[in-house]
Amino acid sequence: MNTFIPRDEQDVATIVSDAAAKGTLLNLAGSGSKAAMGRPNQTDASVTSAALSGITLYEPAEMVIAARSGTPLSEVVTTLAEKGQQLSFEPMDYRPLLGTTGEPTIGAVAAMNISGPRRIMVGAARDSLIGVRFVNGRGEMVKSGGRVMKNVTGLDLVKLMAGSWGTLGFLTEVTFKVLPRPERTSTLLIRGLDDGVAIEALAAALGSPFDVTGAAHLPAPDRLGARTLIRLEGFSVSVDYRLNELRRLLKRFGPADILEGRGADAVWQSVRDATVLPERGERAIWRVSTAPTNGPILTARIAAAIDAQWFYDWGGGLVWIASPLDGDLGASVIREATRALGGHATLVSAPDSERSRVDVFEPQTEAVMALTRSIKASFDPVGILNPGRMYAGI
């Protein structure tokens, strides 16, 4: 399969317009670190953002950064850290889960709306994304948004492109709003809680006025036992005060230890990257969003039907589930429980053959699917961009 490596946005436009004229199906890629996600699409050629690299704008005083889509995420993170700033939404690194290599790119963060544990406080990547440049399926260069957050009248292309998985256009540049890095990070650790009680504790913490930036429960059946984690960030004096207040608030759930430093960072990285679950390849991995209080009910229903393992993030609103690599990978059980309790499930990791026959994304109603097809046709009328990556035939 041919691989095109455009040097600039005009190159991208030329490649895409030529492909549209010939009906050439294109696989859009960055470094390939997330190639094993989504449905395996059947394409004729690949277009990579590898040469579209570099930070194009950074205004620390305005807390705005823009970069070409192929810019390594690590470069953006390092540049921000030098000025005491960060991408607030804490993007996940999928490589440990998928067993892939390559350097994650900032364009993929936007295209796949990649976020982490801090989402409960600051929102997802799409909430910090304020500008995009992309080439649609006609080969037209499009710019939307800019350096400031503002109200949007009409179709918000910035938010539409976030999480579109390259099916609507090839991102060439993205602009994010950033935030200061916290002076101190501290985590309350409560041991031994069962799922229901742990979610109750997390709900109490998140419902408090103490600005929790991470809330996870790891019911891991290992030597460490069940761990309930509540993270606080900010100025040291403020963190001390909030730690003490939260300890009082959560006293009924048992004694709470305080974690800081590398140990705490490692725990939150394992939550962010879902490495709490079994080793890659042993099981299929699902990402389920539901109402936080429904999390323990959902996992209990799933566990009654299949051999599953799981942990909770976002106060229980995000459940990572590992299911056996047989049958339908637990899809019918997981989606039945999700439909009954509200939410949606995404198959994150499984062999290509399984992701071809099992719906990766939550099946849509016919009305929503019709709207999805209509939007796809507006941006990519010939259907050449990442065809079938999200839904078969689209």
From TrEMBL:
PANTHER family: D-LACTATE DEHYDROGENASE (PTHR11748), GLYCOLATE OXIDASE SUBUNIT GLCE (PTHR11748:SF103)
Keyword terms of this UniProt record: FAD, Flavoprotein, Oxidoreductase
InterPro entries, alphabetized: FAD-bd_PCMH, FAD-bd_PCMH-like_sf, FAD-bd_PCMH_sub2, FAD-linked_Oxase-like_C, Oxid_FAD_bind_N, Vanillyl_alc_oxidase_C-sub2
Tagged with keyword Flavoprotein: yes
Record-linked Pfam families: FAD_binding_4 (PF01565)
Superkingdom of origin: Bacteria
Protein name: Glycolate oxidase subunit GlcE
PROSITE patterns in the record: FAD_PCMH
Enzyme Commission number, as recorded: 1.1.99.14
Domain (FAD-binding PCMH-type): residue spans on this chain: 1-181
Keyword Flavoprotein on entry: yes
Record gene name: glcE
UniProt source species: Microvirga puerhi
Gene3D superfamilies, A to Z: 3.30.465.10, Vanillyl-alcohol Oxidase, Chain A, domain 4
NCBIfam families: PRK11282.1
Single GO MF annotation: glycolate dehydrogenase activity
